[in-house]
Amino acid sequence: MSVTSKRGFTPVFSSGIFYIIGETLKGLYRNRWMCLTSTGVVVVTLLMLGLFMLINMNVGHITETVKEQVEIVVYIDEYASQATVDDLKQRLQAHSGLREVRYVSSTEHMDRLQKQLGGMLEGYDSMEDNPLLASFELRTNVPEDVPSIALELETYPGVATVFYGQGYVEDLFAVTGVIQIVGLSLMVGLAITAVFLISHTIKLTVMMRKREITIMKYVGATNWFIRWPFLLEGLLMGFTGAALPLVALYFIYEYAIEWAAVNNLLFLTLLPLQVVIYEVAKYLVPLGTGLGILGSSFSMGRFLKV
Amino acid sequence: MLYLKRFFGSCCRVRTERLGCMVEAKNLSMKYGRGGQYALDDVSFFIDRGEFVFFVGSSGAGKSTLLKLIIRELRPTDGVLKVFGRNVGRLPRHRLPYLRRNIGMVFQDFRLMDERSAAENVAFAMMVTGASRREIRRRVPHVLGLVGLQDKAKSRICDLSGGEQQRVGVARAIANRPAMIVADEPTGNLDPGTSLDIMNLLRSINLRGTTVLVATHNREIVDLFKKRVIYLENGKVVRDEQKGIYTGV
Ligand SMILES: Nc1ncnc2c1ncn2[C@@H]1O[C@H](COP(=O)(O)OP(=O)(O)O)[C@@H](O)[C@H]1O
Ligand SMILES: [Mg+2]
């Protein structure tokens, strides 16, 4: 005689591992709305975290690029005499805070622009027509000195304007810094909510299975055997909560790269997609599963006594 | 002696003279909470391998408390309680499942999974202890046959009568080949005829060598069976007789 149920499944409890997986899926299905809510909160939390990481990594990258490149650009007054320009060059070269001084003529500026715009400015190839200013491109010994040196250079004769990209980056940092503080506290709040919701969801499953758990304890199931379905339930919620934002971030970032390229935002030298997603995944997946496991471990403790 | 070997672990040699002693209580006391009365007060007894023992006494005498101590649902307040020669009061928590696998439990309220079939309930008890698919498939019909339910294997518990449900309870208790059966008022919810059937079933299991401990109110059956009777009153053992009867004198 075989032990099959009325509906004709093979024995439901034929083996521990199938039982554990079966119970996990059953628990998830029976509390599907709570599961979706919990997972949703994990998704939102980790999506935010992922976005912050993307922004952070790229701001860092842009800063590096800017540092690598020119730090200060001194535009030369178009009416300055050759003598004044020579003088200026000497003063800059003698400046103790600077380590590199390079003269860029207006023609060179035009060439660069032509290259950037893909030869759209066909008409402007003669010297007379060139509206661009010649400049000195400078690099400082210490990047932190950029603002003060730039201020000083503005007073030099023959100088039209002083431009330093670092300032923009600082502004960018200030803004992202504020966003990050607000975002981080929001994320911590969301993470706590996620753990709470997961543990609550699993508690519901535990309640539904209370009778079964008591019986399991009486017939000699180990605590681990009883725990597995709940642990897996939390783990699955957490893992899904990490995987979905990763997929979303992949497409968002892909779009951002395209957008930057289309709009010719040259300062936006974004990091490559694969590198960034891999880096984000390294944090999101363990964090998500961690939240899930934390949630499930909060829900079980007292039910395992007896 | 396979079950004992499993229980003690292969590293520990079992001394043969201890094998006979299934339960040994020495000055065992149990008090719930801090103040108040002792539910068990300085109780001592031995139960040998293969015995059939009734624990009797009025409600609140401490029968359930004693059985709960034996299955280590509770820890004694005082004294020593040895089960299979091992002090269960000091049994570390992770060893508890292995103690329970050697004790089959039968409850007054059956404690079965109502939505599952009889076979599933029995299989469940085996599955959680890590029994293999093949073992379960072979053993479940066998134990259901032993309790006379071979035809009801696929019936859901909620479709069975009280007596049949308790048979499933007994089948589950013996599924893992325990050394001892502990039954707390197993006939408390059953009519007299069915009660006798269940008790007879426990007796037949006892005849195959399993130690059986039964806490009961059922005077007729106790008097009929002429087994050992341990009479409790206010947490004390007031009588302990071989071939005893419910009422003294
Ligand atoms: N969980 C508990 N908390 C406090 N007191 C209890 C508890 N369980 C039983 N008792 C007390 O212990 C005594 C013995 O109870 P019990 O062992 O259930 O008796 P019996 O099973 O013989 O009817 C009673 O006085 C009862 O009130
Ligand atoms: Mg009782």
Blueprint of the fold:
The complex is a heterodimer of chains A (306) and B (249).
Chain A: H1 16-30, H2 32-68, E1 72-76, H3 82-94, E2 98-104, H4 106-116, E3 135-140, H5 146-153, E4 159-163, H6 165-208, H7 210-218, H8 223-262, H9 273-300
Helix pairs in contact in A: 1-8, 2-6, 2-8, 2-9, 6-8, 6-9, 8-9
Chain B: H1 2-8, H2 16-19, E1 21-31, E2 38-48, E3 52-56, H3 63-70, E4 78-83, E5 86-87, H4 96-100, E6 103-107, H5 118-127, H6 133-146, H7 162-175, E7 180-184, H8 192-207, E8 211-215, H9 219-225, E9 228-233, E10 236-241
Parallel strand pairs in B: 3-8, 3-9, 6-7, 7-8
Antiparallel strand pairs in B: 1-2, 1-4, 4-5, 9-10
Bound molecules: adenosine-5'-diphosphate and magnesium ion (MG).
Return Rg of chain B in Å.
Answer: 18 Å
Question: What fraction, in percent, of the residue positions of chain A are helical?
Answer: 55-70%
What is the overall silhouette of chain A?
A: rod-shaped
Distance between the termini of chain A: 36 Å
Order of helices and strands of chain A: HHEHEHEHEHHHH
Average of pLDDT of chain A: 80
Which runs of chain A of at least 5 residues are low in confidence (pLDDT < 50)? 1-14
Shape of chain B: globular
Largest sheet of chain B: 6 strands, mixed
Fraction in beta strands of chain B: 15-25%
Which structural traits does this protein have?
heterodimer; A: 306 residues; alpha+beta; Alpha-Beta Plaits; 2 domains; four-stranded antiparallel β-sheet; 9 helices; 4 strands; 8% strand; rod-shaped; B: 249 residues; alpha/beta; six-stranded mixed β-sheet; binds adenosine-5'-diphosphate; binds magnesium ion
Word description of this protein:
The complex is a heterodimer of chains A (306) and B (249). Chain A has 306 residues and is of the alpha+beta class. Chain A has two domains: 13-66 and 172-304, no CATH class; 71-163, Alpha-Beta Plaits. Helix content of chain A is 67%, strand content 8%. Chain A contains nine helices and four strands. Chain A has helices at residues 16-30, 32-68, 82-94, 106-116, 146-153, 165-208, 210-218, 223-262, 273-300, and strands at 72-76, 98-104, 135-140, 159-163. A four-stranded antiparallel β-sheet of chain A has the order 2-3-1-4. In chain A, helix 2 runs antiparallel to helix 6, helix 2 (32-68) packs across helix 8 and helix 8 packs antiparallel against helix 9 (273-300). Mean pLDDT of chain A is 80; it is low at 1-14. By secondary structure, chain B is of the alpha/beta class. Chain B contains nine helices and ten strands. Chain B has helices at residues 2-8, 16-19, 63-70, 96-100, 118-127, 133-146, 162-175, 192-207, 219-225, and strands at residues 21-31, 38-48, 52-56, 78-83, 86-87, 103-107, 180-184, 211-215, 228-233, 236-241. Chain B has a six-stranded mixed β-sheet, with helices on both faces. In chain B, a hairpin with a 2-residue loop joins strand 9 (228-233) and strand 10 (236-241). In chain B, helix 5 (118-127) packs across helix 6, helix 6 (133-146) packs across helix 7 and helix 7 packs parallel to helix 8 (192-207). Chain B is globular and about 50 Å long. Chain B starts with a helix and ends in an 8-residue tail after the last strand. The model of chain B is unreliable at 1-18 (pLDDT under 50). The chains are: A alpha+beta (306), B alpha/beta (249). At the A-B interface, helix 7 of A face helix 4, helix 5 and helix 6 of B. The complex binds adenosine-5'-diphosphate and magnesium ion (MG).
